[in-house]
Amino acid sequence: MNATQADVVIVGSGIVGLGAAYAAVRRGHRVIVIDRTEGPVGATVRNFGHICIGAQIGQARQYGEVSRDIWLRLGHDAGFRVRESGTLIAARHDDEQALLAAAAREGGMRLLTADELREQAPVRHEGVIGGAIVDGDLQVNPREAPAAIIRHLAAAGVEFLFRTAVTSIAAGRVQTSRGAIDADRIVVAVNHDLDQLLPELAERAGVQRCALDMMRVAVDLPTPLAAPLLTGWSLVRYGRFAALPEADVLRARLHTERPDLAALDLNQMYTQLPDGSLIVGDTHAKAVQPAPFQPEAAFSALLEEARGLLAVDDIRVLERWQGVYASGPDEFLIETPADGVLVLAATTGIGMTCGLGLAETALFPHLQEAHQ
Protein backbone atom coordinates (compact mmCIF):
# COMPACT_ATOMS: atom_id res chain seq x y z
CA MET A 1 0.00 0.00 0.00
CA ASN A 2 1.36 3.47 -0.88
CA ALA A 3 2.11 5.77 2.03
CA THR A 4 0.06 8.91 2.60
CA GLN A 5 2.02 12.12 1.94
CA ALA A 6 2.14 15.27 4.04
CA ASP A 7 4.45 18.21 4.55
CA VAL A 8 4.20 18.05 8.34
CA VAL A 9 2.97 15.17 10.51
CA ILE A 10 2.24 15.91 14.16
CA VAL A 11 1.89 13.14 16.71
CA GLY A 12 -0.32 14.29 19.56
CA SER A 13 -3.34 16.62 19.68
CA GLY A 14 -2.58 18.34 22.97
CA ILE A 15 -1.88 22.06 23.13
CA VAL A 16 1.71 21.73 21.85
CA GLY A 17 0.62 19.55 18.95
CA LEU A 18 -2.22 21.93 18.10
CA GLY A 19 0.21 24.83 18.28
CA ALA A 20 2.52 23.05 15.84
CA ALA A 21 -0.38 22.37 13.48
CA TYR A 22 -1.41 26.02 13.65
CA ALA A 23 2.14 27.20 12.94
CA ALA A 24 2.45 24.88 9.94
CA VAL A 25 -0.94 25.36 8.30
CA ARG A 26 -0.64 29.15 8.51
CA ARG A 27 2.49 28.85 6.39
CA GLY A 28 0.76 26.83 3.70
CA HIS A 29 1.88 23.32 4.63
CA ARG A 30 -0.23 20.19 4.30
CA VAL A 31 -0.58 19.01 7.90
CA ILE A 32 -1.76 15.73 9.43
CA VAL A 33 -2.29 15.37 13.19
CA ILE A 34 -2.39 11.85 14.64
CA ASP A 35 -3.71 10.89 18.05
CA ARG A 36 -4.52 7.50 19.53
CA THR A 37 -7.57 8.93 21.35
CA GLU A 38 -10.61 10.64 19.84
CA GLY A 39 -9.48 14.06 21.03
CA PRO A 40 -7.39 15.74 23.73
CA VAL A 41 -7.86 13.94 27.05
CA GLY A 42 -4.60 14.67 28.88
CA ALA A 43 -3.04 17.76 30.38
CA THR A 44 -4.67 20.05 27.80
CA VAL A 45 -8.14 19.49 29.24
CA ARG A 46 -7.27 18.59 32.85
CA ASN A 47 -6.01 22.01 33.92
CA PHE A 48 -7.14 25.36 35.30
CA GLY A 49 -7.33 27.14 31.95
CA HIS A 50 -4.90 29.69 33.38
CA ILE A 51 -2.43 31.30 30.97
CA CYS A 52 -0.03 32.41 33.70
CA ILE A 53 2.56 34.44 31.76
CA GLY A 54 3.49 37.08 34.30
CA ALA A 55 4.69 34.52 36.85
CA GLN A 56 7.32 33.09 34.49
CA ILE A 57 10.93 34.04 33.80
CA GLY A 58 13.52 33.28 31.15
CA GLN A 59 12.57 30.99 28.29
CA ALA A 60 9.15 30.26 29.81
CA ARG A 61 8.35 33.97 29.83
CA GLN A 62 9.40 34.28 26.19
CA TYR A 63 7.24 31.35 25.12
CA GLY A 64 4.39 32.69 27.25
CA GLU A 65 4.45 36.08 25.54
CA VAL A 66 4.32 34.41 22.11
CA SER A 67 1.52 32.16 23.35
CA ARG A 68 -0.47 35.16 24.54
CA ASP A 69 -0.72 36.62 21.05
CA ILE A 70 -1.65 33.23 19.60
CA TRP A 71 -4.31 32.57 22.23
CA LEU A 72 -5.95 35.93 21.52
CA ARG A 73 -5.85 35.33 17.76
CA LEU A 74 -7.21 31.79 18.07
CA GLY A 75 -9.94 32.86 20.46
CA HIS A 76 -11.17 35.36 17.89
CA ASP A 77 -10.77 33.15 14.84
CA ALA A 78 -11.90 29.85 16.37
CA GLY A 79 -14.76 31.37 18.36
CA PHE A 80 -13.96 30.61 22.00
CA ARG A 81 -13.65 32.94 24.94
CA VAL A 82 -10.22 34.20 25.98
CA ARG A 83 -10.52 36.41 29.03
CA GLU A 84 -7.84 39.07 29.56
CA SER A 85 -8.18 38.62 33.28
CA GLY A 86 -4.76 39.05 34.81
CA THR A 87 -3.96 36.95 37.87
CA LEU A 88 -4.93 37.70 41.46
CA ILE A 89 -2.75 36.70 44.41
CA ALA A 90 -3.93 36.63 48.02
CA ALA A 91 -1.38 37.40 50.76
CA ARG A 92 -2.14 36.03 54.23
CA HIS A 93 1.20 36.65 55.93
CA ASP A 94 3.84 39.37 56.04
CA ASP A 95 6.36 37.18 54.22
CA GLU A 96 3.92 36.69 51.34
CA GLN A 97 3.35 40.42 51.07
CA ALA A 98 7.10 41.01 51.20
CA LEU A 99 7.65 38.58 48.34
CA LEU A 100 4.94 40.25 46.27
CA ALA A 101 6.50 43.66 46.93
CA ALA A 102 9.89 42.40 45.77
CA ALA A 103 8.41 40.88 42.60
CA ALA A 104 6.40 44.03 41.86
CA ARG A 105 9.61 46.04 41.41
CA GLU A 106 10.01 44.35 38.03
CA GLY A 107 6.75 45.90 36.86
CA GLY A 108 3.77 44.26 35.24
CA MET A 109 1.96 43.74 38.53
CA ARG A 110 0.35 45.93 41.17
CA LEU A 111 0.09 45.47 44.92
CA LEU A 112 -3.41 45.44 46.40
CA THR A 113 -4.77 46.18 49.83
CA ALA A 114 -6.95 43.54 51.43
CA ASP A 115 -10.06 45.55 50.57
CA GLU A 116 -8.95 45.98 46.95
CA LEU A 117 -8.37 42.24 46.68
CA ARG A 118 -11.80 41.48 48.11
CA GLU A 119 -13.39 43.67 45.44
CA GLN A 120 -12.14 41.17 42.84
CA ALA A 121 -11.95 37.91 44.79
CA PRO A 122 -14.48 36.62 47.36
CA VAL A 123 -11.93 35.95 50.12
CA ARG A 124 -12.68 36.04 53.82
CA HIS A 125 -12.07 39.20 55.82
CA GLU A 126 -10.08 37.35 58.44
CA GLY A 127 -6.56 36.32 57.55
CA VAL A 128 -6.05 38.15 54.25
CA ILE A 129 -3.74 41.16 54.64
CA GLY A 130 -3.23 42.18 51.02
CA GLY A 131 -2.34 40.81 47.62
CA ALA A 132 -1.48 41.69 44.06
CA ILE A 133 -2.72 41.52 40.51
CA VAL A 134 -0.43 40.43 37.65
CA ASP A 135 -1.16 42.12 34.34
CA GLY A 136 -1.45 40.42 30.97
CA ASP A 137 -2.45 36.92 32.00
CA LEU A 138 -5.34 35.14 30.30
CA GLN A 139 -8.01 32.60 31.14
CA VAL A 140 -9.74 30.07 28.89
CA ASN A 141 -12.12 27.22 29.49
CA PRO A 142 -9.95 24.09 29.05
CA ARG A 143 -13.04 22.04 28.22
CA GLU A 144 -14.01 24.35 25.37
CA ALA A 145 -10.86 25.80 23.83
CA PRO A 146 -9.06 22.65 22.53
CA ALA A 147 -12.14 21.37 20.68
CA ALA A 148 -12.70 24.80 19.16
CA ILE A 149 -9.07 24.95 18.00
CA ILE A 150 -9.40 21.52 16.38
CA ARG A 151 -12.53 22.60 14.51
CA HIS A 152 -10.77 25.75 13.34
CA LEU A 153 -7.68 23.86 12.17
CA ALA A 154 -9.78 21.27 10.37
CA ALA A 155 -11.61 24.05 8.54
CA ALA A 156 -8.21 25.47 7.57
CA GLY A 157 -7.22 22.15 5.97
CA VAL A 158 -5.49 20.24 8.77
CA GLU A 159 -6.33 16.52 8.63
CA PHE A 160 -6.90 14.81 11.97
CA LEU A 161 -6.47 11.06 12.33
CA PHE A 162 -7.95 10.23 15.71
CA ARG A 163 -8.09 6.75 17.20
CA THR A 164 -4.87 6.05 15.33
CA ALA A 165 -1.79 4.67 17.06
CA VAL A 166 1.74 5.58 16.00
CA THR A 167 3.92 2.49 16.13
CA SER A 168 7.28 3.89 15.01
CA ILE A 169 8.95 7.06 13.79
CA ALA A 170 11.96 7.42 11.50
CA ALA A 171 13.33 10.20 9.35
CA GLY A 172 10.62 11.02 6.82
CA ARG A 173 8.13 8.34 7.83
CA VAL A 174 5.55 7.66 10.53
CA GLN A 175 4.14 4.16 10.85
CA THR A 176 0.60 4.04 12.21
CA SER A 177 -2.15 1.55 12.84
CA ARG A 178 -3.77 2.91 9.65
CA GLY A 179 -0.66 2.68 7.49
CA ALA A 180 2.47 4.71 6.79
CA ILE A 181 2.67 8.47 6.33
CA ASP A 182 5.65 10.15 4.68
CA ALA A 183 6.47 13.72 5.63
CA ASP A 184 9.20 16.33 5.32
CA ARG A 185 8.85 17.22 8.98
CA ILE A 186 7.57 15.17 11.92
CA VAL A 187 6.67 16.71 15.29
CA VAL A 188 6.29 14.45 18.32
CA ALA A 189 4.16 16.22 20.93
CA VAL A 190 2.86 13.41 23.14
CA ASN A 191 3.77 15.03 26.47
CA HIS A 192 3.97 12.51 29.34
CA ASP A 193 3.56 9.54 27.01
CA LEU A 194 6.94 10.10 25.37
CA ASP A 195 8.20 6.87 26.94
CA GLN A 196 5.52 4.94 25.05
CA LEU A 197 6.95 6.05 21.71
CA LEU A 198 10.59 7.04 22.28
CA PRO A 199 11.55 5.32 25.54
CA GLU A 200 15.31 5.85 25.24
CA LEU A 201 14.84 9.58 24.74
CA ALA A 202 12.41 9.80 27.66
CA GLU A 203 14.83 7.98 29.94
CA ARG A 204 17.84 10.04 28.87
CA ALA A 205 15.92 13.30 29.30
CA GLY A 206 14.52 12.24 32.69
CA VAL A 207 10.91 12.66 31.64
CA GLN A 208 8.35 11.19 34.00
CA ARG A 209 4.73 11.91 34.92
CA CYS A 210 3.34 14.31 37.48
CA ALA A 211 -0.10 13.34 38.78
CA LEU A 212 -2.39 15.96 40.30
CA ASP A 213 -5.47 15.82 42.50
CA MET A 214 -8.03 18.32 41.18
CA MET A 215 -11.74 18.95 41.49
CA ARG A 216 -14.59 21.13 40.32
CA VAL A 217 -16.96 22.45 42.97
CA ALA A 218 -20.25 24.31 43.15
CA VAL A 219 -20.16 27.34 45.45
CA ASP A 220 -22.36 30.34 46.19
CA LEU A 221 -19.81 33.13 45.99
CA PRO A 222 -20.85 36.62 47.12
CA THR A 223 -19.05 38.05 44.06
CA PRO A 224 -17.59 36.34 40.99
CA LEU A 225 -13.88 35.59 40.89
CA ALA A 226 -12.50 38.25 38.55
CA ALA A 227 -9.35 36.29 37.67
CA PRO A 228 -7.48 33.10 38.56
CA LEU A 229 -6.52 33.29 42.23
CA LEU A 230 -3.13 32.20 43.59
CA THR A 231 -1.85 31.94 47.17
CA GLY A 232 1.47 31.74 48.98
CA TRP A 233 1.74 28.08 48.03
CA SER A 234 1.72 29.21 44.39
CA LEU A 235 4.42 31.81 44.90
CA VAL A 236 7.03 29.25 45.88
CA ARG A 237 6.36 27.34 42.63
CA TYR A 238 6.45 29.99 39.89
CA GLY A 239 9.80 31.27 38.66
CA ARG A 240 9.21 35.00 38.98
CA PHE A 241 8.58 34.64 42.70
CA ALA A 242 10.46 31.45 43.60
CA ALA A 243 13.75 32.87 42.27
CA LEU A 244 13.73 35.73 44.78
CA PRO A 245 15.41 35.44 48.22
CA GLU A 246 12.15 36.38 49.93
CA ALA A 247 10.71 33.08 48.66
CA ASP A 248 13.13 31.13 50.87
CA VAL A 249 11.62 32.71 53.97
CA LEU A 250 8.08 31.97 52.80
CA ARG A 251 8.88 28.38 51.83
CA ALA A 252 10.52 27.67 55.20
CA ARG A 253 7.49 28.96 57.10
CA LEU A 254 4.93 27.10 54.98
CA HIS A 255 6.81 23.82 55.28
CA THR A 256 7.29 24.27 59.03
CA GLU A 257 3.69 25.24 59.76
CA ARG A 258 2.02 22.80 57.39
CA PRO A 259 4.27 19.83 56.63
CA ASP A 260 1.14 17.89 55.64
CA LEU A 261 0.41 20.30 52.79
CA ALA A 262 4.09 20.46 51.84
CA ALA A 263 4.08 16.66 51.55
CA LEU A 264 1.22 16.97 49.04
CA ASP A 265 3.33 19.51 47.08
CA LEU A 266 0.36 21.85 47.19
CA ASN A 267 -0.39 24.66 44.76
CA GLN A 268 -3.49 26.23 46.25
CA MET A 269 -5.25 28.07 43.44
CA TYR A 270 -8.69 28.61 41.94
CA THR A 271 -10.29 29.50 38.61
CA GLN A 272 -13.99 30.05 37.90
CA LEU A 273 -15.68 28.56 34.85
CA PRO A 274 -18.46 30.35 32.94
CA ASP A 275 -21.12 28.27 34.72
CA GLY A 276 -19.96 29.64 38.08
CA SER A 277 -18.27 26.48 39.31
CA LEU A 278 -14.70 26.60 40.58
CA ILE A 279 -11.71 24.48 39.62
CA VAL A 280 -9.84 23.74 42.83
CA GLY A 281 -6.36 22.34 43.12
CA ASP A 282 -3.89 20.98 43.15
CA THR A 283 -1.40 18.45 44.53
CA HIS A 284 1.62 16.91 42.81
CA ALA A 285 3.17 13.43 42.83
CA LYS A 286 5.96 12.53 40.40
CA ALA A 287 6.85 9.06 39.14
CA VAL A 288 7.45 7.24 35.88
CA GLN A 289 3.95 5.83 36.31
CA PRO A 290 2.06 7.37 39.27
CA ALA A 291 -0.49 5.14 40.95
CA PRO A 292 -4.03 5.76 39.69
CA PHE A 293 -5.39 5.70 43.25
CA GLN A 294 -6.14 9.12 44.71
CA PRO A 295 -6.22 9.42 48.52
CA GLU A 296 -9.28 11.14 49.91
CA ALA A 297 -7.03 12.99 52.36
CA ALA A 298 -5.68 15.07 49.49
CA PHE A 299 -9.16 16.16 48.42
CA SER A 300 -10.10 16.84 52.04
CA ALA A 301 -7.07 19.10 52.37
CA LEU A 302 -8.00 20.99 49.19
CA LEU A 303 -11.54 21.56 50.48
CA GLU A 304 -10.33 22.60 53.93
CA GLU A 305 -7.99 25.18 52.44
CA ALA A 306 -10.72 26.49 50.13
CA ARG A 307 -13.11 26.95 53.07
CA GLY A 308 -10.40 28.78 55.00
CA LEU A 309 -9.73 31.28 52.20
CA LEU A 310 -12.99 31.81 50.33
CA ALA A 311 -16.04 33.54 51.74
CA VAL A 312 -18.39 30.58 51.26
CA ASP A 313 -20.65 28.64 53.59
CA ASP A 314 -21.00 25.52 51.49
CA ILE A 315 -18.88 23.74 48.90
CA ARG A 316 -20.34 20.87 46.90
CA VAL A 317 -17.97 18.65 44.93
CA LEU A 318 -19.14 18.12 41.35
CA GLU A 319 -16.15 16.26 39.88
CA ARG A 320 -12.77 14.89 40.91
CA TRP A 321 -9.99 13.91 38.54
CA GLN A 322 -6.33 13.06 38.26
CA GLY A 323 -4.48 15.62 36.25
CA VAL A 324 -1.25 14.57 34.59
CA TYR A 325 1.61 16.27 32.79
CA ALA A 326 5.18 15.57 31.75
CA SER A 327 7.82 16.44 34.32
CA GLY A 328 11.55 16.69 33.78
CA PRO A 329 14.69 18.40 35.07
CA ASP A 330 14.18 21.30 32.66
CA GLU A 331 11.07 23.32 31.87
CA PHE A 332 11.02 22.25 28.22
CA LEU A 333 12.16 19.35 26.08
CA ILE A 334 13.31 20.17 22.55
CA GLU A 335 15.08 17.30 20.78
CA THR A 336 15.81 16.21 17.21
CA PRO A 337 16.36 12.42 17.49
CA ALA A 338 16.43 11.97 13.69
CA ASP A 339 16.60 14.11 10.57
CA GLY A 340 13.38 16.04 10.21
CA VAL A 341 12.00 14.79 13.55
CA LEU A 342 11.34 17.34 16.30
CA VAL A 343 10.26 16.34 19.82
CA LEU A 344 8.55 19.06 21.85
CA ALA A 345 7.17 19.03 25.38
CA ALA A 346 6.55 21.42 28.24
CA THR A 347 8.06 19.38 31.06
CA THR A 348 6.51 21.38 33.87
CA GLY A 349 2.92 22.31 34.57
CA ILE A 350 2.92 25.35 32.27
CA GLY A 351 1.86 23.78 29.01
CA MET A 352 -1.24 25.93 28.57
CA THR A 353 0.84 29.03 29.30
CA CYS A 354 3.79 28.21 27.05
CA GLY A 355 2.76 25.40 24.69
CA LEU A 356 1.57 27.48 21.74
CA GLY A 357 4.65 29.69 21.93
CA LEU A 358 6.95 26.71 22.30
CA ALA A 359 5.52 25.11 19.15
CA GLU A 360 5.61 28.33 17.14
CA THR A 361 9.15 29.25 18.16
CA ALA A 362 10.73 25.80 17.93
CA LEU A 363 9.02 24.66 14.74
CA PHE A 364 9.42 27.79 12.62
CA PRO A 365 13.13 27.23 11.73
CA HIS A 366 12.32 23.65 10.69
CA LEU A 367 9.51 24.87 8.44
CA GLN A 368 11.89 27.32 6.81
CA GLU A 369 14.39 24.52 6.17
CA ALA A 370 11.68 22.42 4.52
CA HIS A 371 11.26 25.14 1.86
CA GLN A 372 14.97 25.32 1.11
UniProtKB/TrEMBL annotation:
Domain named FAD dependent oxidoreductase: residues: 7-360
SUPFAM superfamilies, A to Z: Nucleotide-binding domain
GO molecular-function term, one example from the UniProt record: oxidoreductase activity
Key words, A-Z: Flavoprotein, Oxidoreductase
Keyword presence, Signal: no
Cofactor(s) the record lists: FAD
Signal peptide: none
Entry's Gene Ontology cellular component terms: cytoplasm
Family: Belongs to the DadA oxidoreductase family.
Protein name, as recorded: TIGR03364 family FAD-dependent oxidoreductase
Taxonomic source organism: Microbacterium esteraromaticum
